[in-house]
Amino acid sequence: MKTVFARMSEADRAIFTSRHRRALERACAEIKWGDHQVRIQWSIPTLLGRYYVIALAGRERRSAERRSHDERRYPFARTRNFLFLGLLSTIAVFLIVFVTAMFFIGYHQLFQS
Fold first, then answer.
1. Is 33 exposed, middle or buried (0-12, 13-18, 19+ CB in 10 A)?
2. Long-range residue pairs from 16-25, CB within 8 A, at least 24 positions apart, any chain
3. Percent share of the chain, pLDDT over 70
4. What's the sign of the alpha-carbon dihedral 10, 15, 17, 19?
5. pLDDT average, residue stretch 8-25
6. Which long-range contacts (CB under 8 A, 24 or more apart) does 102-105 make?
7. Least confident piece of the model among 15-19, 28-32, 69-73
8. Closest CA to 54 of 46, 45, 44, 42
9. Confidence of residue 82 (pLDDT cuts 50, 70, 90)
C-alpha cells in the first residue's frame, strides 16, 4: 500500500484521510493476485532487455457477464494469445529437435571413432 501512495504527488496524497487510507488498505488486502493452482513464470533475457512470461491456471471465478464483457472489450486478445502460444510451441519443438539431433550426431561420432 505504501508504494501506491509513494507514486502519488503530495497534493494527491493529502486528499486521503486516515479513514480513506484504512478503507483502501482493506480493499486491496482482499485482492488475491497469486491465488492460482498453477503458476509458471519464466524470465527471458534478450538483446532488448529482460522479458517475463507467466502462465496461470486455476478455477474460473469470473461471471458469464464479465467473461462476455472482456471478450467484447479485447476481441484480439484471444488471437494474439494463440499466436504467441504457437510461436512458443514452434520454438520449443525446434529446440527439442535441434538438441536431439546434436545428441545423436555426437553419439554417432563417438561410436565411429
1. exposed
2. 25/1
3. 93
4. negative
5. 89
6. none
7. 28-32
8. 42
9. confident
